[in-house]
Amino acid sequence: MLDNFFARKRLNTLLYCSLLLALTVIAIVITSYDVIAGFTSIPKAAEWVFNNFYPNEKALERLPVIMSGLAETVLVSIAATTIAALFALMFAIAGSHSTGTGGVFSMLSRSIATIFRNIDVSAWSMILLISFGQHVLTGYFALFFGSFGFMTRAFIESIDEASSSSIEALRSTGASYFSIIFQSVIPSCMPQLLSWILFMVETNIRQATLIGILTGTGIGFLFSLYYKSLNFSTASLIVLVLVMTIFVIESISNYVRRVIL
């Protein structure tokens, strides 16, 4: 019996690997991708980067402009995340099995979160470009909608996992619905909720750079501008500044997580 089980698992693994290999071969054939040329071009690409893609004195003169674009990107990311977290918490409370009222409203809350979560932020940017054009609001709302969908789902799971026993205990004592929410649910889930918010801030700063290329705002726009004008030294400085910023944000986020968790 046990041998048959492991034999089936090995067979399933072999089938999945064969299917993945077949799909890879089909994709290579359809796109006419030259695998050998792709791998052999890596040394040439690395050589070009070392010879051209590094900051110089002229690039450092543009550092104030770069920092201004970086500040815009970071602030928009934080603003979109925090406001989205407030809406996500309300929808999560309504959609949770522990705190939700059930019925149509709970299902609607989960459905809205699923729709927003499954539309990528870049797709939101292209959709919103039609309404707002290349404006900072386009990037803001793209990050807001993507963050809202993701955090609503994450908050629902956090509420369901962390507060079910305390909710039942308070209900048995006759506590009101809002007393349960504000005295039990939110305090017990707050460390997990803050952890998700910090994670979303990190993610949005990365995504805001790519969105800036589409919306013409922030540090993403500056990178696109300098790269397309073949000013590779300034473009490389933007990349270095962005990488260091992400490391700093991640270090702060990890420190906060260690404190609250």
Structure description:
This protein has 261 residues and is mainly α. It folds into 2 domains: 2-52, no CATH class; 60-260, MetI-like (MetI-like fold). It has helices at 2-31, 35-52, 57-61, 63-95, 103-118, 121-132, 136-162, 164-172, 177-215, 218-228, 232-260. Helix 4 packs antiparallel against helix 5, helix 4 crosses helix 7 (136-162) and helix 4 (63-95) crosses helix 10. The longest helix is centred in the last third of the chain and has 39 residues, at 177-215.
Task: Give the gist of this structure.
The chain has helices spanning 2-31, 35-52, 57-61, 63-95, 103-118, 121-132, 136-162, 164-172, 177-215, 218-228, 232-260.
Element pattern in H and E: HHHHHHHHHHH
Number of strands: 0
Helix content: over 70%
Instruction: Tell me which CATH architecture of the largest domain applies here.
Output: Orthogonal Bundle
Assembly level: single chain
Q: Are there runs of 5+ residues with pLDDT below 50, and where?
A: none
CATH structural class of the largest domain: Mainly Alpha
Overall mean confidence score, pLDDT: 82
Rg over CA atoms, rounded to whole Å, is 24 Å
